[in-house]
Design goal:
Blueprint (H helix, E strand, L loop, with lengths): L8 E2 L4 E6 L6 E7 L4 E6 L3 E7 L5 E8 L11 H11 L3 E7 L4 E6 L3 E7 L6 E8 L5 E7 L4 E6 L3 E6 L5 E6 L4 E7 L4 E6 L3 E7 L4 E8 L5 E7 L4 E6 L3 E6 L7 E5 L5 E7 L4 E6 L3 E6 L27 H7 L7 E2 L6 E2 L6 E5 L4 E7 L1 H6 L9 E5 L4 E7 L4 E6 L4 E5 L3 E2 L1
Antiparallel strand pairs: 1-34, 2-33, 3-4, 4-5, 5-6, 7-8, 8-9, 9-10, 11-12, 12-13, 13-14, 15-16, 16-17, 17-18, 19-20, 20-21, 21-22, 23-24, 24-25, 25-30, 26-27, 28-29, 31-32, 32-33
Protein name: WD repeat and FYVE domain containing 2
Subcellular location: Early endosome
Keywords: Endosome, Metal-binding, Repeat, WD repeat, Zinc, Zinc-finger
């Protein structure tokens, strides 16, 4: 069989295209409008804005809408809005935009989801429906066109789904902790729910019921982001523990690959299927582009031992061996490559192990350090500085554009078009 010698797209440094700065508060969620020079944002300042690029090259709001009241849209005068805004206005926490129907679903801190239809020129936003979805703030909302479902999660530790045609609630599922991540697979009707305990729950949804498929936990911190690739049938989860885990759902072997490339909380994940690259952003300002077109290895389980598995010196709790050998007990460490329990003297070296997801240098035992080749140390990710603490990200695959919104109240648009080598 002939070898595949076709050129492979390679990641390049993101090119900053535009900045949107006319914001009064942090943007909780934003999305690029496909086939348009436009962006939709929802903010902590209670506004929904549609930004369109003008002839000047700057983005200005064509729609500026303040979310009001339990139903979200009372018809009141400007003076009345000013008088009662402190009572009626509510921050926008999340949103979902479907470009085919131009349907915008906005989740709010009062548990309400308000639905709007945007005009073809994106200069008008018409209220369509309101859902009283949660008792606490809405954390994630997804509109599934194929099912005509509105899926949502909330601070009230619940996952719900509504019929978008009737507005009726179809079902709900109670979670063990505040839910912070949600993805859905249309083909199998599986919902992936990540929560603040670090657990991911898989649910099988029916029209008016759901069943628990399984749960798994690999993070030591909150699940902060989920990304589902329906082709490879792989789920990516990001966490406040700075790590990303790739869960091979389709392989049915329980394979979980760790990716360590952020110094702070992972805030967003997007997968680019045409280049087989995972893009992650963090509150450290980092944009990391991971090459997933390589054969990665699972990190080993850490082994238990009462003494160093290299030099056999006792660890400090092993009183019997300490007494018998008349030696002082040592602190236990673990080699990240083989998982063996080792002392500090036998693990004095550091190395990157990119195929295991360790793009930063980590502790390895002296034996493993000698065995790691320069080829195995070759990086499988590229690192870029967005120069703001990322709160949210969105990837638009048709143009390879990336949006980041930051704690600095700025939205940035990046060109992520790969180069072909």
């Amino acid at each position: 069989m002939a070898a595949d010698i076709s050129p492979r797209p390679q990641a390049r440094r993101p090119v900053l295209l535009s900045r949107i700065e006319a914001l009064q508060d942090v943007v909780n969620t934003a999305a690029i409008i496909p086939k348009e020079d436009g962006v939709i944002s929802v903010s902590q300042d209670r506004t929904v804005r549609v930004w369109l690029k003008r002839d000047s090259g700057q983005y200005w709001p064509s729609v500026y809408h303040t979310m009001l009241g339990p139903a979200g849209n009372p018809q009141v005068s400007d003076w009345e809005i000013l008088q009662i805004s402190s009572l009626l206005t509510t921050p926008c926490s999340c949103m979902s935009f479907n470009p085919e129907t131009r349907r915008l679903s906005v989740g709010m801190d009062n548990g309400v989801i308000s639905e709007f239809i945007l005009s073809e020129d994106y200069n008008k936003m018409t209220p369509a429906r309101t859902y009283q979805a949660h008792q606490g703030g809405v954390t994630v909302v997804l509109f599934v066109l194929e099912m005509e479902w509105v899926l949502s999660t909330g601070q009230d530790k619940s996952f719900t789904w509504h019929c978008s045609e009737s507005g009726q609630q179809l079902g709900t599922y109670r979670t063990t902790a505040w839910v912070s991540g949600l993805q859905f697979d249309v083909e199998t009707r599986h919902a992936f729910v990540g929560d603040h305990s670090g657990q991911v729950t898989i649910l099988k949804l029916e029209q008016d019921s759901c069943s628990l498929v399984t749960t798994f936990k690999g993070h030591t911190g909150n699940v902060t982001a989920l990304c589902w690739d329906p082709v490879q049938r792989v789920l990516f989860s990001g966490s406040s523990d700075h790590s990303i885990i790739m869960w091979d759902i389709g392989g049915r072997k329980g394979t979980a690959i760790e990716l360590q490339g952020h110094n702070e909380k992972v805030q967003g994940l997007c997968y680019a299927p045409h280049t087989r690259q995972l893009i992650s952003c963090g509150s450290d300002g980092g944009i990391v582009v991971w090459n997933m077109d390589v054969t990665r290895q699972e990190t080993p389980e850490w082994l238990d031992s009462d003494s160093c598995q290299r030099c056999e010196q006792p660890f400090f709790w092993n009183f019997k061996q300490m007494w018998d050998s008349k030696k002082i007990g040592l602190r236990q460490h673990h080699c990240r490559k083989c998982g063996q329990a080792v002392c500090g003297k036998c693990s004095s070296k550091r190395s990157t192990i990119p195929l295991m997801g360790f793009e930063f240098e980590v502790r390895v035992c002296d034996s493993c350090h000698e065995s790691i080749t320069d080829e195995e140390r070759a990086p499988t990710a590229t690192f870029h500085d967005s120069k703001h603490a990322v709160v949210h990200m969105h990837y638009e695959p048709t143009r390879s554009w990336l949006l980041t919104s930051g704690a600095d109240k700025v939205i940035k648009l990046w060109d992520m078009t790969p180069v072909v080598s």
